[in-house]
Amino acid sequence: MSIGVFDSGYGGLVVLRELVKQLPEYSYVYLGDNARAPYGTRTPEEIYQFTLQAVDKLFAEGCELVILACNTASANALRRIQQHDLLRYPGKKVLGILVPTIEQITGLPWSALHPYPQAINIGVFATQATVNSHAYKTEILHRNPQAKVVEVACPELATLIESGADEVVLRDYVKQCVDQLRSELPDVDAVLLGCTHYPLVLEHFVSELPGIPVFDQGQITADALRAYLSNHPELEKRLPREGDWRFLTTAEPELIEPLATAFFGLPIQYEKVVLS
Ligand code: DGL
Fold first, then answer.
1. 124 to 189, 210, 230, 264: CA distances (angstroms)
2. N or C end: fewer C-beta atoms under 10 angstroms in the chain?
3. What is the mean pLDDT of each run of 10 residues along the chain (276 residues)?
4. Is 139 touching ligand 1 by the criterion CB < 6 Å?
5. 107: left (phi over 0), alpha (psi -120 to 50) or beta
6. Could you identify the atom of ligand 1 that is nearest to the CA of residue 195?
């Protein structure tokens, strides 16, 4: 029994990298739907159907808990899966990465009633589908009505990263996205990379946003998982401490292994799976 980690492609490897570093005792099964990535330009219904297929697959592979390490899937599919589809899987859980990220950037836990939230200007970079859902803006404002949130879609960025684009191309694209944010929110206080692919070009965001904290989701998700497991001992007890990892993909393994290995930082060998 393992912890499943799902992303449309490579981005979730950045989250998994942090999970295996912080919580190495557990076993993980990573699934990337590389053959159908990117998800960010798809409709909410497609994103839901594909994410559900991935969750079904990870449960069939023996996962007790699945983390959607993909903002696009978390924003467009998580609630529906939790409310309807999990009824077929008593005792199993699916978690997303939006809530822990929002807790971190607002400094407010989900349930907090904070009488004097600080005025803060937050920029969110994400895929088109995540921006269209306005999940980040809605949830941040729900906790901190004084915040000003500007969401900027970076529709090409996940594809450029997935295709292994040249650093100059990536830097120029990131600069365009940052320029757009600055034109809408000149005095930005904090920036959130609301797509798990974007930490792969973190250095470009940091150099375009000097002195501004840039939040990424690897560490945040590891902290959230640790807290979740300590609050759910009945689930934690069912996770064997074998510390092994498997990697599943819908694409041809040999085509994606070199880039996946570069992103994960350790050699990866994928098994090909079919989702339906
Ligand atoms: N990594 C995914 C996310 O966090 C999305 C990239 C894509 O498939 O468009 O949103």
1. 11, 16, 30, 24
2. C
3. 94 94 96 96 97 98 95 95 96 91 70 58 95 94 90 96 93 98 96 92 96 87 91 91 96 95 92 97
4. no
5. left
6. 4
Q: Sketch out the chain's domains with CATH numbers.
A: 2-99+218-272 (3.40.50.1860), 100-215 (3.40.50.1860)
Q: Which two tokens stand for residue 14?
A: 């950045």
Tokens of residue 247, six digits: 């990697």
| 183-214 pLDDT tens trace | 999 999 999 999 999 998 999 999 999 999 99
CA of 114 to the centre of ligand 1 (A): 31
Q: Is 0.85 surpassed by the pTM of this model?
A: yes
Convert the pLDDT of each residue in 151-165 to its tens digit: 999 999 999 998 889
Bridge partners (DSSP) of residue 204 are: none
CA distances from 86 to 5, 89, 181, 275 (A): 16, 5, 38, 18
Residues catalogued as catalytic: 70, 195
